[in-house]
Amino acid sequence: MGISIFSLFPTFSLSFLLISLYFPTTQSSPSSIYDHLESNGLPMGLLPKGITDFSIDPDTHLFQVLTQPCNAKFENQLHYDFNISGVLTFGKIANLSGVLQQELFLWFPVISIRVDDPSSGLINFDVGVVDKQFSLSLFEIPRDCTAVDPDDSHSQSKNSQKLSESLGIGTVEEHRLRAVS
């Protein structure tokens, strides 16, 4: 008698399939700072767990992360300041500030982090005086970070900055990755 709505179902299904093949969905840009790290060949555990508010400039590769000052334990202790900045490129974060690494009883500013050869399983932290190598596996997942008093972290950062200046280690102010905690 008439055309049933169910008899049109194969036609609608085929039309929908053809349209979806013709207009494929574009893959969305990375949705978290951890996704950005991974898409740049870096492990997502370089930053502490729980970062949800961030921004990144696609032209300058400058990014900003909002978190709080805290310490995380790897082979050595890392301190994340209230403000973290640097430039994110494939396999490297350059011009880094706001991350400190403890060696014995001293805190050294980490000025860059890089993975030269992913197959080596190593990641390099440049603390100005030397490069410190760690196993990439230490940074596979973001670590819990113990909150610290911002006044204490600020004084550590100032002391590390003074140490860097006395050693002749400088940083470039332009095109910086910026993480605010």
How would you characterize this protein structure?
This protein is α+β, with helices and mostly antiparallel strands and 181 residues long. It is built from three helices and eleven strands, in the order ααββββββββββαβ. It has helices at residues 9-22, 33-39, 150-166, and strands at 53-56, 63-66, 70-73, 77-89, 92-103, 106-109, 112-114, 122-126, 131-135, 146-147, 179-180. Strands 3, 4, 5, 6, 7, 8, 9, 10 and 11 form a nine-stranded antiparallel sheet that branches. Strand 3 (70-73) and strand 4 form a beta hairpin. The chain is globular, with a radius of gyration of 23 Å. The model is unreliable at 11-27, 153-157 and 166-181 (pLDDT under 50).
List keywords for this structure.
32% strand, 181 residues, single chain, alpha+beta, 9-stranded antiparallel beta sheet, disordered C terminus, two-stranded antiparallel sheet, 3 helices, globular
Sketch the topology as an H/E string, one letter per element: HHEEEEEEEEEEHE
Number of E-type strands:
11
Radius of gyration: 23 Å
What global shape is seen?
globular
Mean pLDDT: 75
How is the biggest beta sheet arranged? 9 strands, antiparallel
Low confidence ranges = 11-27, 153-157, 166-181
The helix content, as a percent range, equals: 10-25%
Distance between the termini: 70 Å
In percent, how much strand structure appears in the residues?
25-35%
Task: Output the structural class.
Answer: alpha+beta
Total helical segments: 3
